[in-house]
Amino acid sequence: MTNEMFRAIRLYKDLTQRDFAKIIGISKATVGRIESGSLRVTPRVKAKIASKIELTDDFFAFYKKMRKIS
């Protein structure tokens, strides 16, 4: 998972950094550092996302469109 995809998940779910952090059980600062690229998405964080957030085909279509715009 890239930092870009991490951010896209949060945006797709329409969450603030604080709310996203609370849902997946990490700090808001960690969310900010991942999104800025100063910290990579660890296997632990990926697991937390996988257990708390369902990534549907709609999300992947959104992500593909978002990448085209970027």
Describe the 3D structure.
With 70 residues, the chain is mainly alpha-helical. It contains five helices and no strands. Helix 1 (3-12) packs across helix 3 and helix 1 (3-12) packs across helix 5. It is globular.
Sequence-ordered SSE layout with sheet pairings:
Layout lengths: L2 H10 L4 H8 L3 H9 L6 H10 L4 H13 L1
Short summary of the structure?
It contains five helices and no strands. It is an all-alpha fold and 70 residues long.
Features:
70 residues, mainly alpha, single chain
- Decide which structural class fits the backbone: mainly alpha
Residue fraction in strands: under 5%
Q: Would you identify the regions where 5 or more consecutive residues have pLDDT less than 50?
A: none
Helix content: over 70%
Order of helices and strands: HHHHH
**Gyration radius over CA:** 11 Å
- What's the total count of β strands? 0
Largest sheet: none
Shape: globular
SS summary, helix count = 5
Distance between the termini: 17 Å
Mean pLDDT: 97
